[in-house]
């Protein structure tokens, strides 16, 4: 048993509260259980109780055993001075405040119905199932699942907003620069995401804007700042790019000494950093209204077309410098564009709408039109619930559910877990 289950019992009064008495035999009448505190300090704030003939307003602390009060050294912490009731599963010792005044204790062990405990035991079987509610998940009411997943989707967007907000602060609220940095990060995917973000933040975005129509210059800038124009390749094109980069480096006082160099190891050739950076340069050289389209997403097809680019010239026969191969088209695939929409466009437009007073509902509309991300976690959920819509909103919400709730056994903070205890 975990404390979060006791939090659930108290929060929703899932015990025989009409028979609630302190360990000293005084009757407890609960007017308000208080506000659940997810941070440090007592577990519930501003509870209102009547203990015996005395009315109390204050905080409630919850532990598995009464002795946990001393194990956690609450008797030394002034934040627990206003605790009016100690709720425990098992009472094994009386507890006192710093001034030695006793704190009333409610023991739940004999007040909880055995059926509720059986339901909890079924849910708390993490060693047996992929997720604790694996057997029950397919049977949960569709409306409840949809409602919870939509909440989780926006919770995931809020989580991703931290990076965007941080980039905004560092750039002096230069939205276009932040969009470029976020795009660069996601063009690098998991392996080179941080390296590409590092590269994109290593120079003023105004340099990109000044050379926006010159694809060759942008390629030189991106590849050069990423440290990919070093070495002694004799390719004429490589030499030309490096010469252009040296000019840019001198003109704009560029410094890439602290930039993380991208990796090639264990990457498919189409995901080589050279190809991805050239594609990124292609987008900025060919799309003058990219920022407007991303911040005001109305037409999914128009958004997709913004990222439909392919390399030409030298890159038709090269994945990297010095190694030629038979000519082959290298374009951004639908799957890759899907990831860009999920990881860049939607989170960025969400934060932009929040900051600028726009509607986040349009963001959800776009997410419902984008195909679901393909990975093992999402596939497993869809196996359990084939009726779930296969779109980005649901797939992202499911990833958030698995990582932040299922894997951490936070069933008592999950609407689906709580619902199973209520209705099974």
UniProtKB/TrEMBL annotation:
It comes from the Bacteria. It holds the Pfam family DUF2851. InterPro entries: DUF2851. This is DUF2851 family protein.
């Amino acid at each position: 048993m975990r404390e979060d289950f006791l939090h659930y019992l108290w929060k929703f009064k899932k015990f025989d509260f009409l028979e609630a008495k302190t360990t000293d035999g005084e009757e407890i009448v609960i007017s308000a259980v208080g506000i659940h505190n997810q941070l440090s300090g007592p577990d519930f704030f501003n509870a209102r109780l009547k203990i015996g003939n005395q009315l109390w307003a204050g905080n409630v602390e919850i532990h598995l055993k009464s002795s946990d009060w001393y194990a956690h050294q609450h008797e030394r912490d002034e934040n627990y001075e206003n605790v009016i009731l100690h709720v425990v599963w098992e009472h094994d010792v009386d507890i006192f405040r710093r001034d030695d005044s006793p704190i009333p204790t409610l023991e739940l062990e004999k007040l909880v119905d055995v059926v509720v405990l059986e339901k909890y035991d079924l849910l708390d079987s993490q060693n047996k199932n992929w997720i604790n509610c694996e057997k029950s998940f397919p049977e949960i009411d569709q409306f409840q699942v949809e409602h919870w997943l939509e909440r989780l989707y926006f919770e995931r967007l809020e989580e991703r907003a931290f990076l965007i907000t941080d980039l905004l602060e560092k750039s002096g609220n230069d939205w276009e620069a932040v969009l470029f940095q976020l795009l660069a990060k996601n063009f690098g995917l998991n392996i080179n995401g941080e390296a590409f973000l590092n590269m994109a933040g290593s120079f003023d975005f105004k340099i990109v804007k000044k050379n926006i129509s010159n694809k060759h210059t942008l390629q030189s800038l991106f590849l050069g700042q990423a440290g990919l124009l070093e070495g002694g390749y004799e390719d004429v094109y490589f030499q030309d790019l490096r010469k252009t980069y040296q000019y840019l480096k001198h003109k704009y006082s560029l410094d890439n000494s602290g930039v993380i160099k991208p990796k090639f190891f264990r990457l498919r050739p189409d995901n080589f950093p050279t190809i991805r950076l050239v594609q990124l340069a292609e987008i900025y050289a060919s799309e003058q209204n990219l920022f407007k389209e991303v911040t005001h997403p109305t037409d999914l097809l128009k958004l997709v077309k913004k990222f439909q680019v392919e390399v030409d010239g030298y890159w038709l026969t090269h994945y990297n410098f010095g190694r030629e191969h038979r000519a082959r088209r290298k374009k951004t695939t639908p799957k890759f564009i899907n990831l860009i929409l999920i990881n860049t466009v939607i989170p960025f437009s969400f934060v932009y709408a929040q900051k600028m007073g726009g509607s986040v509902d349009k963001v959800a509309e776009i997410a419902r039109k984008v195909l679901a991300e393909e990975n093992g976690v999402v596939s497993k959920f869809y196996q359990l619930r084939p009726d779930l819509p296969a779109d980005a909103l649901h797939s992202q919400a499911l990833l958030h559910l698995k990582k932040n709730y299922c894997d951490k056994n936070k069933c008592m903070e999950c609407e689906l877990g709580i619902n199973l205890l209520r209705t099974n």
